[in-house]
Write a structure and sequence with these properties.
two-stranded antiparallel sheet, 6 helices, 4% strand
Length: 163
Amino acid sequence: MKPLSGSITDQAPADPAATDDMLASQPIGYWAGLVHETVTRRLRDAMARIDVTQPQYWVLNRVTGGPTAPSREEVITQLTPLAGGQHEIPRVIDQLLHRGWLSIDAGQNLHLTDAGEAARIRLRGLATELRAEVHKGISDEEYVAALKVLRTMIANTEEDGTS
């Protein structure tokens, strides 16, 4: 597809079969959404086979990820924007407490138990394997370049006041 005027490329309809020479005209929202959907589905399917959810993995990582034990409310506040609604992370915390992977102290701070740390390490290994699968044939330099492009697109959109 030829540029309309100067260096502006016409926006074509989403086409999963677009050839390389047609990719510049493809809508980023379609492709970013498709990547999100397929990668998330693959990760969640793999985790489901070992009876764990992605939000459970988020909580385990968050609880172990700081210099001090986070409170239940801190974890809920930090992870709710990633979750499927305001009630998901509180439920996940309750599931992990019930499972014995988390404990909670008198100050409402969350801690990983030995079983929780073992699960987190096992899940990290699984996530690392899946990352390698998804990144097959993509160099770190190409990956970084792609993320920089996406970061610039986000900044361009926010500058326009449309976010």
